[in-house]
Amino acid sequence: MPRTQALMLEIATGDARPISRQIVDGIRMRIATGELALGMQLPSVRGLAQQLGINPNTVAKAYAELTAEGWLESRQGLGLFVAPPRQRLSAEERSKRFDEAVTRFVHEVVALDVAPDEAVARIDSELQGLAFRKSA
Amino acid sequence: MPRTQALMLEIATGDARPISRQIVDGIRMRIATGELALGMQLPSVRGLAQQLGINPNTVAKAYAELTAEGWLESRQGLGLFVAPPRQRLSAEERSKRFDEAVTRFVHEVVALDVAPDEAVARIDSELQGLAFRKSA
Amino acid sequence: MPRTQALMLEIATGDARPISRQIVDGIRMRIATGELALGMQLPSVRGLAQQLGINPNTVAKAYAELTAEGWLESRQGLGLFVAPPRQRLSAEERSKRFDEAVTRFVHEVVALDVAPDEAVARIDSELQGLAFRKSA
Amino acid sequence: MPRTQALMLEIATGDARPISRQIVDGIRMRIATGELALGMQLPSVRGLAQQLGINPNTVAKAYAELTAEGWLESRQGLGLFVAPPRQRLSAEERSKRFDEAVTRFVHEVVALDVAPDEAVARIDSELQGLAFRKSA
DNA sequence: GTGGTCTAGACCACA
DNA sequence: GTGGTCTAGACCACG
Which CATH number does D19-82 carry? Predict the structure, then answer.
């Protein structure tokens, strides 16, 4: 399996999310869309840290979270690799988190006084075109 | 105009949002849906703090944010009242915050491996039925 | 709800487990047995770190893991509290991890040439007497 | 005595254990169950490394550990052979390692909220059917 | 070379 | 005061 190329991740300083969060989101998205395929090796902690100009510990933290969530798996001394898909969370847990995400988004839409149709259309447009991995 | 009655706000300890955020979200939602009508008076800082069993500073902070966002207006010596609709945020600011909200929601959907159709349907359903104020 | 008293946790330097792991295991066990009851507040990150003579970051890491696993919940600015029990993992995930734990233990029993009866009796004895929380 | 045939060992990439550990566990288990009988010769370091597609150093390290533990013995210039049963570890050392294994397993059971009865039954079932070598 | 852990010290948001 | 994040630098096990 090939190592990933430069992994076009970018850290946006203006982004409200913490850096480690941006890394987690970015990599998770690339795995979900298949851009990072099963078994591919990720950039090394030190390598990605240097590429992004951040501290290796920050990358390590992001990688640890992705590993705990089951998206990556570590092979000692070799590196980190994209793990096979699996349903890690119970239905209730997923439902709970999804509810929270929906509530948060709806509150923001209300706060910004965005038209419901526009909000729905935007979400629809963003989600279409994403190729999801089949869950095991 | 009548003062609001008890203002059925509830602070959920299991909620991931900070308390001040829960207050802001709750009041904003009630204004947006018309449950809190234009000109109605809000509970005093001390009164609401006591009712919710929280620190008055936290209520004051929430009220300040709602006032800054244009949802409430202060009448010196009388208290806080629901303000007439207006557009406080610049187009850029609204667009930026909306983009962030969309990004956050999409990432959550991906992380939870929720089907795009289901996510869109859910947002649509939650937003319908909310009566929005007309923006100025 | 009362704050926990000294929380008799001890860090064993001779223990093969990393310090943060010992904290996670210790607290999880106390929650499972009910010694730390629902809603109780945990020692502060800095407080526990000082009590154990370790770095606050190490405690924070352990707390973060327990929070991610659903045993604790954070209330911003207030502290960490024992969360209500819930089944966070899917049946497959729990089964997978349990299989791994069994395999690891069996391998160790074989390596040490411990009599099967002795191993079973020991596990039985250790698990009995633990009062488990009822899952929601 | 015959050399072992292919030694049906498999390295599972999804396994959390380091590769050397998988080899040690696998061979030790086969000796304990009698699948690898006293006096049988093991595959050469290079041969096994090639068969498994891993680094020869890793195989060498695993063999060294098994030799140190008394499961294998080296006959200069001939290769490695399954050694006669003996008790290498001191009582204290065995007891300490066994305690650690028990502790680890119990913590996993608690973390996964597995019923004690189920855990005991599973360990019992896994250990029965394994034929143990008599200790010297 | 790889990831994993720990320490030290700083800054932030929240109450 | 609380937890959360980031940086910096060190040491370890594994391959």
Answer: 1.10.10.10
